TrEMBL record:
The keyword Ribosomal protein does not apply. GO terms for cellular component: cytosol; protein serine/threonine phosphatase complex. Gene3D superfamilies: Leucine-rich Repeat Variant. It comes from Lygus hesperus. The gene is Ppp4r4_1. The lineage of its organism: Eukaryota, Metazoa, Ecdysozoa, Arthropoda, Hexapoda. This is Serine/threonine-protein phosphatase 4 regulatory subunit 4.
């Protein structure tokens, strides 16, 4: 591992620790750290993207739904568009799956389910496979909410 990669790993772990340990209030985290996490999702180095994606996925359960709706979901939805590179669409699948676990069924149906269903029809086999691994999370959240008619 190169020095730069070690630094990125250390920083990403520290950012997550700040949130987990409640070192600062969530609004400050959202203002000061979340933009950095999101920025690194577009890094040129796939190892850096993977590391920051993991940080984001681990942060999702710790953030309030309104923050997820306003800051995280739009990024995941944007990165899931067919015009985006395959690696970004694959990455968005994991983020969408984790987001699904935090959303209430009506909001999940409205905001995330259409995107997930669209990814199920993606031209890339890798993207379709990635979203299929996340559908269990979506279904878990929709269970008891007549999800069969939705799917």
């Amino acid at each position: 591992m190169h020095q730069r990669e070690r630094s990125d790993v250390t920083v990403s772990r520290c950012v997550l620790a700040v949130l987990k340990e409640k070192v600062i209030p969530v609004p400050q985290f959202v203002e000061n750290f979340l933009p950095t996490v999101i920025k690194y999702l577009d890094h040129d180095d796939e190892a850096v993207v993977a590391m920051w994606s993991t940080t984001l996925i681990e942060a999702i359960p710790l953030l309030p739904v309104d923050v997820l709706q306003e800051h995280v979901a739009p990024v995941a939805i944007q990165r899931s568009q067919p015009t985006r590179p395959v690696n970004q669409r694959i990455n968005s699948c994991s983020v969408l799956g984790e987001l699904a676990l935090q959303y209430e069924p009506p909001l999940l149906k409205k905001d995330l389910l259409p995107v997930c269903l669209s990814l199920c029809q993606d031209e890339s086999l890798e993207v379709r496979s990635a979203i299929c691994t996340q559908l269990e999370k979506v279904i878990k959240q929709l269970k008891g909410d007549s999800f069969k008619t939705t799917l």
